[in-house]
Design brief:
The chain is mainly α. It has 14 helices and six strands. Helices cover 34% and strands 4% of the residues. The two termini are 29 Å apart. Bound molecules: heme C (2 copies). The site of one heme C has 25 residues, from helix 3 and helix 4.
Length: 341
């Protein structure tokens, strides 16, 4: 396993130094995202600058899709924190639609399970699945291998040391790029690192509420990335057409459960939730999401007991929303190392 600290990785992204020494140990402290744990690169797909750079080019290349219309970046847009806001459901190859909202890819290298239902556990498998998906990119393998031979020869040799193209390696390069989409520069992070003047009184009031037992927000959205990487039903529907985690485990207790999303950059990624809505309508604003939690959601057999009517004044609800806005990190939205080549 290769380990780098976030600080090392950020340094790496900014200064393009190829080697980071003196890695710091991972921190256990769950609330203070002073330094995220070291990014782990799988031993069968170690990091190199050349591979991340190849991955970036492939991430933005529409020619990987069957009709040349779609790249990863079509549904994971940098200035929308690598989500597809404002679309509720993304449109893929040949205008096909899935049924879920496209999530942010910021800090996705830290996620233990991928997709809203957690059906895949590595970024390599995830990228392969999307490339092969008939409604997302539907790669034409022969055409893509020809493209790689024609246009990617030099980058390929630098990244993999030979000229043998494969879809599996495309996925490896893209996964390596994704592990460099790292953010710890929000006002909230900086506040935690000591720049206490960066949060207003209202935002600090919202933060206190967020981490309190009155709201329980941080019991699920906790840790450095404000997620527990677990699956919960938060009472959005009385009937789940998309059954979420149940489709993976077939355990009735998992019906309507979805992965707790990170709340980093949450102000930029509306509409919200796996489906982008609730049975009361599209959840287009953070105010609407907070209102959902205040109301306590539907009654559903697998609903988490922590989601129940909250007694928050209008003033407190506004403070909570104000706090969620402090989680935006504008540096990741404009970092040229993550942009379209
Ligand atoms: C047509 C739109 C579309 C395209 C194209 C697309 N994605 Fe996605 N992506 C989505 C949606 C929608 C989801 C959520 C699907 C689900 O949970 O079932 C998702 C989920 C993901 C996730 C999981 C994130 C998490 O936290 O669980 C990753 C990683 C990801 N996409 C990377 C990629 C990569 C890499 C590519 C290109 C190879 C790509 N996507 C192309 C729409 C798209
Ligand atoms: C029991 C665990 C749990 C608790 C408590 C909880 N959440 Fe969530 N939250 C989730 C899950 C799971 C989802 C995704 C649900 C879905 O898509 O069906 C979610 C979704 C969200 C979203 C939308 C994220 C996105 O990317 O679409 C926001 C915003 C949010 N929660 C904020 C909060 C706030 C604020 C609180 C406290 C008032 C809170 N949550 C309490 C588990 C929880």
């Amino acid at each position: 396993m290769t380990r780098w600290t976030t600080r090392g990785l950020v340094l790496l992204l900014w200064s393009a130094t190829s080697c980071v020494t003196n890695p710091e140990p991972a921190r256990e402290d769950s609330i203070i995202p002073d330094v995220l744990p070291a990014m782990v690169f799988p031993s069968d797909n170690p990091y190199s600058d050349a591979k991340a750079e190849l991955g970036r080019h492939l991430f933005y290349d529409q020619r990987l899709s069957a009709d040349g219309s779609t790249s990863c970046a079509s549904c994971h847009v940098q200035d929308r924190a690598f989500s597809d806001a404002p679309h509720q459901i993304s449109v893929g190859v040949r205008g096909e639609q899935g049924q879920r909202n496209s999530p942010t890819l910021v800090n996705v290298g830290y996620r233990r399970a991928l997709f809203w239902d957690g059906r895949v556990s590595t970024l390599e498998d995830q990228a392969s699945a999307v490339l092969r998906s008939p409604i997302e990119m539907d790669v034409d393998t022969t055409a893509v291998l020809n493209l790689l031979r024609a246009d990617y020869r030099d980058r390929w040799v630098q990244a993999f040391g030979d000229t043998i193209p494969s879809i599996q390696r495309v996925a490896q390069a893209i996964a390596t790029f994704e592990r460099t989409i790292v953010s710890t520069g929000s006002r909230y992070d900086r506040f935690r690192r000591g720049e206490t003047w960066l949060l207003s009184e209202q935002e600090r009031e919202g933060m206190t509420l967020y981490f309190s037992s009155r709201t329980m927000c941080s019991s699920c959205h906790g840790g450095p990335d404000l997620t527990d990487d677990a699956f919960h039903n938060i009472g959005l529907f009385h009937h789940y057409f998309d059954r979420g985690r149940y489709d993976v485990t077939r355990n009735p207790y998992d019906e309507g459960k979805f992965k707790t999303p990170t709340l980093r950059n949450i102000a930029l990624t509306a509409p919200y939730m796996a489906s982008g809505d609730s049975e009361k309508g599209v959840l287009n604003t953070l105010e609407a999401v907070v209102k959902h939690y205040v109301d306590g959601g539907t009654t559903f057999h697998s609903k988490d007991a922590r989601v129940k009517t909250l007694h928050l004044s209008a003033h407190e609800q506004q403070a909570l929303v104000a706090f969620l806005h402090t989680l935006t990190d504008s540096t990741v939205l404009s970092n040229p190392r993550l942009s379209k080549p």
